[in-house]
Amino acid sequence: MSLGARLRQYRTARSYTLDELVERMGGVVTKQALSKYEHDRAMPRTTVLLALARALDINASRLIAEPEYHFQLVAYRALASLPKKEQETIESTVQLELERRLTLMDKLGIAHGYPFKGAATLSDVSAAEYAAGELRRAWNLGGGPIASVVDTLESNGVHLIDVDTERKFDGLAVIATDEHGEQVACGIAARLEVSRARQRMSHAHEVGHLSMRASEGVDEEAAARLFAGAFLYPADAVRAEFGAHRTRVTTDELLAAKRRWGMSIQGIVRRLRDLEVIDETSYKWWCMYINRAGWRTDEPGDEPREHSTWVETYAHRAAAEGLIARETLVDYIPTISNRTVPEDMDRRALLKLPLAERRAFMKAQAEAHAAEYNAMIDREWLDAGMGEWDQEHE
C-alpha cells in the first residue's frame, strides 16, 4: 500500500474531509497538496509528514510503513443506501482496527488462525440450515441457547468490531490475508447502537457470509438470513417448543423464546415461517402487527447489547509484559485513563519488603519502563530518519 493510499485510509477512518484535515494541520499545506499526496502525485516533506501524523493522531511511521496484512471485504449489507463518505469511513475503520488487533497478537506471540477454511458451498438457500448446524457441532455448542455470541465468536477466532454509524448500516465482514495471500484472520463489524437481540442476529448473519460460499444463482443474503436464524435457534429446538404446525401463536410465547434464545420477535416469527411452523398468511399478519406496534425499531423485552473484552484483555497483557508502553493503553482502550495505572510503590513501603520481593518489584518496574524508553527511542529514530526520507523524495 502506497503512502497516498495509507493517508487516505487514515483520513477516511477519522471521517475528515480534505478541508477538515487542512484545518487540523493548521494550514501547513493546501487541500490541493493533500489531494496530490493521496493520489501519489507528490510526496510530503518531513515537516508535512509529521504534521499529518499529529493531525491524524498517529505515529508518522504508520504512514510510511508497508502494512503486513491485506484486507478483503466479504459482505456489506445496505451498501447502496449509505453515502459514499460513510462507506469509506466504515471500511477504513474496520480494516485499521483489525490490523491493529493482529499487530497486538504479533507482539504477544499469539498465532493467527482463520476459522472458516473449507467453507461450505451452497447449491440452494435451504442448505444454509445444515451449514449452521455443522458449525454449531464444530464449535461444540450443542443444541441449546448460546449464552454469549460475542464470547463464542471471539473464542473461535472471529474479531468483533463496533461501528458507531447510521441506522442504515447492518454489518460488514472482512478477511485478512498475509503477504502470501493466505487467509489469517477475519472480522465482523456491527452497528454500535442496537439491542442485544439485533446485535446477535447481525453477528450470526455475517458468520453466515464467512462460513458459506453460494453457487451461482443462489441468493447470498437469503442464505445468510436463514443461517443466522438456524445458528441462534436450531430447528429441533423450535419444533420442540412451538410444535411442528401452529395456526396461532401468542405474544407471550414469542417473548419467552426471545428471553431464552436471544433473538428478536421479528427473527423468531421469520424462523417459524422458514420452518413452516406457521403459514405465509400468519407470517404476513405478524409482520403487519409488528409494524403497527412500532416493534421494528423498539421491541418489548429488549436487553443491553453484549460487550467484547478482547482488546482490553490483550492490551493490558501487552502492557504488563512490557510489549507496549503504558501510556499507549488509551490508544487501545479509549475509556481508560493513565491515572488508572498503579503508581510506583512508596519508597518506605518498598524498603519494608523482603529482599527477594524488593528485587522482583524493581525488575517489574524496569521492564515496564523499558517499553516506554523503547517507544521514545522509536520516535527519535523516526525523526532522525526523516532527513533520508526528504532526500529520497525530493
Your description of this structure?
Helices cover about 55% and strands about 10% of the residues. With about 400 residues, it is of the alpha/beta class. Among the domains are: about 1-65, Orthogonal Bundle (434 Repressor (Amino-terminal Domain)); about 120-245, Arc Repressor Mutant, subunit A, CATH 1.10.10; about 310-390, no CATH class. The strands form 2 sheets. It has a 4-stranded mixed β-sheet, sandwiched between helices. It has a two-stranded parallel sheet with strand order 2-6. Helix 1 packs across helix 6 (about 85-110), helix 6 crosses helix 15 and helix 13 (about 265-275) runs antiparallel to helix 14. The two termini are about 20 Å apart.
Q: Work out the helicity level.
A: 40-55%
Q: Could you say which structural class the secondary elements and strand pairing correspond to?
A: alpha/beta
CATH class of one domain: Mainly Alpha
Largest sheet: 4 strands, mixed
List the helices and strands and how they pair.
Blueprint: H1 3-13, H2 18-24, H3 31-38, H4 46-56, H5 61-64, E1 70-76, H6 84-108, E2 120-122, H7 127-138, H8 149-155, E3 158-163, E4 171-177, E5 183-191, H9 196-211, E6 212-214, H10 220-232, H11 235-242, H12 251-261, H13 265-274, H14 280-292, H15 310-320, H16 329-332, H17 347-351, H18 355-392
